[in-house]
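Per your request, structure below.
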């Protein structure tokens, strides 16, 4: 077994010890159940860890991560996480957190095939197509890339609002707000894109469901 792999198991033992040193009931209490107020939809990128960024402990954040923090409305994984978070855990906030320098978003701006992932990245290309008039006017590539990252997050927030899950919760009077953030790999700070939506009236007519 590799040294790296052994180290992971050792690290786990140390982590358990350190948690118990602070609170001997830490795991006993966590095992009783979870009551997170936040669903985090983020990128799979190893540099964007949900809990650490917001200073949250285990039990505080329900997490879904995929390449480029996408809300794809036919993705059973995303829908199941969202449904459980909203209808069972009754989270009050959903944050879609993208990040500058996102490899998935960068790939979507280019034409290079990189395998089966091309089909996932197509969802991001659809966002580019939606905003291409604006994006194509930005000559500086880094600025265009950063703007695309932000627009992609905003679009995913709107895609959340279009789901029957979120609209159903709003219709039931549930306190649920959607947010869009971008994380800076260079600084550690998040920027709130202020696309906070808490009612379906913020959506185009055609997406508003009647129950
Ligand atoms: Co990314």
């Amino acid at each position: 077994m590799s040294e790296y792999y052994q180290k992971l198991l050792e690290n786990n033992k140390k982590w358990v010890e350190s948690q118990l040193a602070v609170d001997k009931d830490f795991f006993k209490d966590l095992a009783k159940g979870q009551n997170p107020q936040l669903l985090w939809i983020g990128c799979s990128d190893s540099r964007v860890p949900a809990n650490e960024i917001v200073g949250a402990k285990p039990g505080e954040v329900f997490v879904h991560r995929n390449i480029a923090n996408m809300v794809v409305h036919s993705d059973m994984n995303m829908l199941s996480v969202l449904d459980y978070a909203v209808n069972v855990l009754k989270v009050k906030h959903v944050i879609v957190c993208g990040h500058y320098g996102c490899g998935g978003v960068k790939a979507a701006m280019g034409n290079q095939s990189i395998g089966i992932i091309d089909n996932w990245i197509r969802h991001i290309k659809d966002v580019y197509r939606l905003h291409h008039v604006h994006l194509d006017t930005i000559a500086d590539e880094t600025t265009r890339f950063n703007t695309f990252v932000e627009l992609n997050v905003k679009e995913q927030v709107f895609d959340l609002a279009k789901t029957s899950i979120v609209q159903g919760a709003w219709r039931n009077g549930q306190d649920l707000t959607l947010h869009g953030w971008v994380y800076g790999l260079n600084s550690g700070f998040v920027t709130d894109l202020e696309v906070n939506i808490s009612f379906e009236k913020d959506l185009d007519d055609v997406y508003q469901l009647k129950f």
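The chain has a mean pLDDT of 96.

Regards,
D.
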